[in-house]
Design brief:
Blueprint lengths: L1 H19 L5 H10 L1 H4 L5 H18 L1 H6 L11 H9 L3 H21 L1 H15 L3 H15 L4 H22 L5 H21 L19 H19 L5 H11 L8 H26 L5 H9 L5 H32 L6 H22 L3 H21 L8 H14 L2
Length: 415
């Protein structure tokens, strides 16, 4: 038992580190562990590695909002938090914003756990019923997302072009001999990581003075945001290909709309989506036998016969991880908001870019991939990832990189 507690604590620490480094996706760290599993299993048990991955993913999902709000360098899963989060930072309310996302993430995990008996009864038969029509659902929700996140005809056209273009890239890469892990790492690093950081280099990011006192109070709006985030996260974990940006739109509708104008409810909901989706992607292994995230895929490969006891075990690990991460989020968020005022982030941004490219280069060498091809795909993905910033459209449309292949696969299976 002691070694599993240690695995949980180490996982939380690694999740906090990856969450606080802008642009680093948790699946990148998960890919490192999975790629090194042949060596690591000589030192640790399968349960140790799985608890580590679960704890790391939960901690990352909660703490990644700190750089998103304070540094202004988001990844895809927190991109929608920038405007309301920065609005509060500009008003000197960073500590309040941190408490909103911390409570949203923690509360959504609790909501997901309480609703789990209902999910166990409803979702497996529902999944069997709608599985032949999932491609239709994906198409309809994608169309709704394009319409919902666009202001006029021009932005709708560009959103559709970005959606299809990223989808073609995703489908093409998944047809190559390159492993899906390296393919997605290359695509996501360019589309959502390096491209966002490069764009942020054009801006002189300075953290303004922050009030040392916060005005955070639990009220009906925040509770509504927590419920919406938890439910939207489970819906997100049920549908293949969708990311937290899409789940955030669902959460907005469930919480009564209002969008970014209702700042408190908005931040609470999207944080809840992030953590609830992380947990439910594991629950989906047990309910429908289909993992819904990179971390869940790695765990399903480690544990071939995923049963109810495993589910309870990982729920307990998730609850422990989110409880500790809640405290870390509050303490680190307050520390960053106080001690990072006036810092210019250009050097940090360049360091992250170099680190991400170096990591991609190392994995390409380990797999024996053709480096010029990987480089070409990475440059193309980065260029495509820059376009939404200059066109004024949402980067969430670049999730076509996963949604379009999912549509093609489900269409081919049932037609």
């Amino acid at each position: 038992m002691f070694d599993l507690i240690l695995a949980c604590l180490i996982g939380i620490l690694c999740g906090a580190i990856t969450g606080l480094i802008p642009g680093i996706h948790v699946n990148t760290a998960g890919a490192i562990i999975f790629a090194s599993s042949a060596f690591l299993l000589n030192l640790f048990s399968i349960e140790f590695l799985c608890v580590f991955l679960v704890s790391m993913s939960i901690a990352h999902a909660l703490l990644e909002f700190i750089p998103s709000i304070l540094l202004g360098v988001p990844d895809e899963s927190t991109a929608l938090s920038i405007l309301p989060g920065h609005r509060m930072v500009l008003e000197g309310r960073a500590r309040e914003a941190i408490r909103l996302v911390a409570m949203g993430g923690f509360g959504a995990i609790i909501v997901t756990i309480f609703l789990l008996p209902l999910f166990i009864m409803i979702l497996p038969p529902l999944y069997e019923l709608i599985r032949p029509y999932i491609w239709i659902i994906l198409v309809l929700v994608s169309i709704y997302m394009i319409l919902r996140l666009s202001n006029d005809f021009k932005t709708r056209v560009w959103s559709f072009i970005l959606f299809i273009s990223s989808g073609i890239m995703g489908w093409t890469m998944l047809q190559t001999p390159i492993s899906s892990n390296l393919s997605l790492m290359c695509l996501f690093t360019g589309l959502f990581g390096v491209s966002t950081i490069i764009y942020s280099l054009n801006e002189k990011s300075i953290l303004p003075y922050q009030n040392k006192f916060h005005n955070f109070h639990l009220d009906t709006q925040i509770f509504r945001g927590i419920m919406a985030g938890g439910i939207a996260g489970t819906i997100l974990g049920f549908l293949p290909g969708f990311g937290p940006a899409q789940g955030s739109i669902i959460a907005q509708e469930l919480s009564g709309g209002g969008g970014e104008e209702n700042t408190e409810s908005f931040l609470t909901a999207i944080s809840g989506v992030n953590t609830a989706d992380t947990l439910f992607s594991l629950v989906a292994i047990y309910l429908i036998g289909n993992p819904r995230s990179g971390i869940a895929v790695y765990i399903s490969n480690f544990i071939q016969d995923f049963n109810f006891n495993h589910l309870l075990f990982f729920i307990f690990a998730s609850l422990t991880a989110v409880s500790v991460s809640l405290i870390l989020c509050l303490k680190l968020g307050d520390w960053f908001s106080e001690y990072m005022q006036g810092i210019n982030y250009n050097k940090l941004s360049w360091a992250v870019i170099i680190f991400m490219i170096g990591l991609l280069f190392c994995f390409s060498l380990l797999e024996g991939a053709f480096l010029p091809f990987i480089g070409l795909v990475f440059i193309t993905a980065t260029a495509l990832g820059l376009l939404p910033h200059y066109l004024g459209v949402s980067k969430s449309h670049l999730m076509g990189v996963l949604i379009v292949p999912a549509i093609i696969i489900y269409f081919g299976m049932y037609n």
